[in-house]
Amino acid sequence: MRTGIVYHPDYLLHEQSPTHAERRERIAYTIDMLDEEEIWDDAGIKRINPRMAAEDEILSVHTGDYLRRLKEADISGAEFDTNTYGPPGFLKNALLSAGGAVTAGEAVMSGEVRNSFALIRPPGHHAGRNFAGGFCYINNVAVMTRAVQNSGVKRVMIIDWDAHHGNGTQDIFYDDPDVLYVSIHQEHCFPGTGKIKDVGDGVAKGRTINMPIAPGSSGRVYRYPVL
Ligand SMILES: [Zn+2]
Question: Is 87 in the same domain as 163?
Fold first, then answer.
């Protein structure tokens, strides 16, 4: 098997409101297309079921205080920022999303597949050590990174090509010399962070690379040799 795709129908359940930008259609359309293309019948593709992330996996990235806030929000609901509401019961969806990222990493580490894609939601890169925001509650890629490090990989590189800067991921690894965080994002877009001068801290100086680019930048800009 070459490529694993982690997916579960429960990834469609999370809902802040039916018209919210981060709604089920974000991946429902992708799944429709994969079904249409009969991708699951491709011999090179393996569909992988996710598991929930465990509490100690969450705590490898987020603070205990923050996890307590998530649990409280899970009962009563909470508005983390103007666009990020945690509706009651949201936490199991967030844990399945983080667990899906971990599952994708584990599938590669065990040799089950050569590479993998986690088709998961809610998203994660705006969630920092102690904060939610930008539709994100748990930093999925960070939880996966810690999991693969715990299974023997020392250094990890994260390439983040969302139009937004992944301020949460940067926050988590800003002083970690073993994780190289690279973000290519639209300049002056949400959340406004990710300046070129932000390069990491202390022993991790140089382990954060931010490349803000102009809106509408083409593939030519992505391929431009900067080094
Ligand atoms: Zn984003």
Answer: no
